From TrEMBL:
GO cellular component, one term: nucleus
Source organism phylogeny: Eukaryota, Viridiplantae, Streptophyta, Embryophyta, Tracheophyta
Keywords carried by this UniProt record: Isomerase, Nucleus, RNA-binding, Rotamase
Span of domain PPIase cyclophilin-type: 7-163
EC number: 5.2.1.8
Protein name, entry field: Peptidyl-prolyl cis-trans isomerase
Function: PPIases accelerate the folding of proteins. It catalyzes the cis-trans isomerization of proline imidic peptide bonds in oligopeptides.
Species annotation: Phoenix dactylifera (Date palm)
Length: 171
């Protein structure tokens, strides 16, 4: 399954690892469907490292999982889904920006270079951007002018587009 992410700098297609990371991809897809992410800022861009988003406050300190909306405050975070074979080896890897072990909510990041293997098994990798599906947009984000906190001087926003659920019949 894939999600089209429309940014102010171009489009990105994220291919999701739904079979390997069901909690994480369900969280991401449900937040997309309920328009939680619409208009979110890329609040942190570190050149040749990562671009982080998913916090509706735009500060990097907020965010809630879909499970909070379903089950209350005690379910704000959900568990890691770490798989040793899902790695930060390619530009365009998509992973949860967790606040610590088993503290995943809504924030996530795109890697902006290959071989960030020291992040492996610390963050849930749940998607990838394939060549010709948005790596050019990630390259533009990577070139953004940022302040000393990594926040782009010119806002970069995104909204994931509605998707067609393959389990849903279309008449």
């Amino acid at each position: 399954m894939s999600v089209l992410v429309v940014t102010s700098l171009g489009d990105i297609v994220v291919d999701l690892h739904t079979d390997r990371c069901p909690l994480t991809t369900k969280n991401f897809l449900k937040l997309c469907k309920m328009k939680y992410y619409n208009g979110c800022l890329f609040h942190k861009v570190e050149k040749d490292f990562l671009a982080q988003t998913g916090d509706r406050t735009g500060t990097g300190t907020g965010g809630d999982s879909v499970y909070k909306f379903l089950y209350g405050e005690q379910a704000r975070f959900f568990e890691d889904e770490i798989h040793p074979d899902l790695k930060h080896s390619k530009t365009g890897t998509v992973a949860m920006a967790s606040a610590g072990e088993n503290l995943n909510a809504s924030q996530f990041y795109f890697t902006l270079r290959d071989d960030l293997d020291y992040l492996d098994e610390k963050h849930t990798v749940f998607g990838i951007v394939e060549e010709k599906e948005g790596l050019d947009t990630l390259a533009k984000i990577n070139e953004a002018y940022v302040d000393d906190q990594g926040r782009p001087f010119k806002d970069i926003r995104f909204s994931p587009m509605p998707y067609i659920d393959p389990e849903q019949e279309i008449f």
